[in-house]
Amino acid sequence: MAGREGASRRAEVRGAEWERELLGLLRPGGQRVRQVVAWLADAVDGTVCLHDGSGAVLAGTSLDSGPFEELFDDMVAGRIASAAWEGPGRHLRLVRVPASAGVLTVSRAVPFDRRASEIVTHTVQVLDVLLRAHESTVAVHRLERATSDLRLAILQLLMVEDTVAARRVAAGLWPGLLDTDTACVYVVESRPEERDGLAEECLDATGEQALVVRCPARDEHVIVVTPREAVAGALRSLIGPRPRVFLGGSARQSLARTATAYGQAVSALAVAHFRPDKAAVYAERTHPERLMAPDALRAWTLRVLGPLAGLSHHTHTELLATTRLGLEFTAVSAAKVLGVSRNTVRARMERVEALLGTDFSDLAARAVVHLALNTQESLAHGEDDRAPAPADLGELLTGPAMRAWAHDLLARLDADTRDLRRTLRTWIAAGGNAERAAQTLGVHAQTVREHVRAAEPVLERQLLAGGGDLYEVVLAHLAAGDLDQPALHGVKQGEPDSLVHR
Predict the structure, then answer these.
(1) Nearest CA to 222 among 255, 282, 262?
(2) pLDDT tens for residues 32-52?
């Protein structure tokens, strides 16, 4: 009697052990479906295979289904929940797994005893839980991806000034979000591997008050478009405790000027790298266009962009939006932001080059066209339409206020014994190409890059990445007489190694 009671207790202990092992596979961070199937094969000393509803193997070792194919089909169809099959030296258990509409098949060389049968039954329950959890996770990920793609589509519509379509798309999921005339754009920067988590925190912090988009051009950037003032504070609270997270914000702009606001936010982000609080809003600093005679600037702009005036509205808007982004960023980045190919961006910009009779490989030409585009944008959003007096670029650049601003800005570089001013001037004249500038200066290309990089915090402007900050510095050189004025007519001279072709 004592012997039988001892054997019974040992069996109970062994049963408790396999139950604990099986439950352990359900714990967070534990094994998943493949590991559970492998565990079952070991626990019953057999061969196990998990098929989905189509018969494909999800986990385990594939078994010859010939002898029990009809049983398998009936189980997939839901007509039976479990079955057994026996043959010479082969004993099978087939159990339907509801979550995948599949079948778990267990094969042994010996008959199934009570313990083996219980293990199979409980394992099916565990697999069902794991598969349902997986399906839920996949569904959530699909929904998150679709929502993320929709946010990007709205941003791309705003970038090309199609605010009507952007509002229509946004209204379905975020009612009222874009029911505004103006908004601010913020760019949050982190390490690329941290961006997804940061984007989720931005979504949580801003609620339904902002359009949060993972930047398609920069893996470390999250773009936030919002009409709400309070969002800035919420974003600042996210960057505080993190050592490598920065925030740049734009001035408030109309929704149609989202691309301009984006450029401002990126510019502010460069300044944020030099700030102790790691945040900056686009400075209301003195911009060169504000120092030019308004009527003369308006007249010059209309004359420079006159060749574009005869285009259809759609083509005109498309070319201007693409060129603004193409001048601010590389063709590759602009293409990702707009959702088109980089060849499309280049083709559109080449058409603008041809119409304006200029060459975008010349940084001075890029700077003055950028000035004209920004002025034209202001004219399109509220300036008067009186007939302007004739004007040329020389008149705009040589006014007393403009020249004083230029000399004051560039004089900041004179304190550095490395002659940063000479290096910067030569680099700009070389189209932003460090190798050509180095040949002219008789130094290494890396030295040129280091000098330009050193000039950035002194001038409080981003230079190596190109864009509006660089163009302001180019205009300063033009106003100071350190560079020749660019041509806005004539045949384009191709230049493969420049900022526009990077």
Answers:
(1) 262
(2) 788 888 888 888 888 888 888
Residue positions counted in the chain? 502
131-156 pLDDT per residue, tens: 887 777 777 677 778 888 888 999 99
Please check whether residue 431 is in contact with residue 495, taking contact to mean a CB–CB distance below 8 angstroms: yes
pLDDT tens track for 223-261: 999 988 888 888 988 887 778 899 999 989 999 889 889
pLDDT in tens, 364-417: 999 999 999 888 876 655 444 555 555 788 888 888 889 999 999 999 999 888
**Residues linked to residue 57 through DSSP beta bridges, in sequence order:** 51
DSSP 8-state symbol, 98: G
As given in the structure block, the two tokens for residue 436 are 């050509």
Element (H, E) at 116: helix 114-159
Q: How far is CA 152 from the centre of its chain?
A: 9
What's the maximum distance between 2 C-alpha atoms anywhere in the chain? 117
> Do 398 and 476 contact (CB within 8 A), yes or no?
no
The residue whose two tokens read 């959530």 is 140
Residue 360: helix, strand or coil by DSSP?
coil
Is residue 396 within 8 A of residue 472, CB to CB? The reply is no
Q: What is the DSSP letter of 112?
A: -
Instruction: Note whether 157 and 165 are within 8 A (CB).
Output: yes
- Dig out the tokens for 218 from the structure: 């920069």
pLDDT value for 97: 83
Per residue, the 3-state secondary structure of 56-70, as one string, reads CEEEECCCCCHHHHH
**Nearest to residue 340, comparing CAs of 181, 157, 101, 136?**
157
Please determine, for residue 101, whether its predicted confidence score (pLDDT) is greater than 70. no
What does the H/E/C string look like for 139-197? HHHHHHHHHHHHHHHHHHHHHCCCHHHHHHHHHCCCCCCCCCCEEEEEEEECCHHHHHH
- Residue 49, beta-bridge partner list: 60, 105
Two tokens, residue 484 = 């020749």
The residues pairing with 87 across neighbouring beta strands, listed in sequence order, are: 90
CA 292/CA 437 separation, integer angstroms = 31
The string of pLDDT tens digits covering residues 464-487 is 888 888 999 999 999 999 998 887
Say which residues have a Cβ less than 8 Å from residue 187's Cβ, sequence separation at least 6: 215, 221, 222, 223, 224, 247, 248, 249, 262, 265, 266, 268, 269
End-to-end distance of the chain based on CA atoms, in angstroms? 88
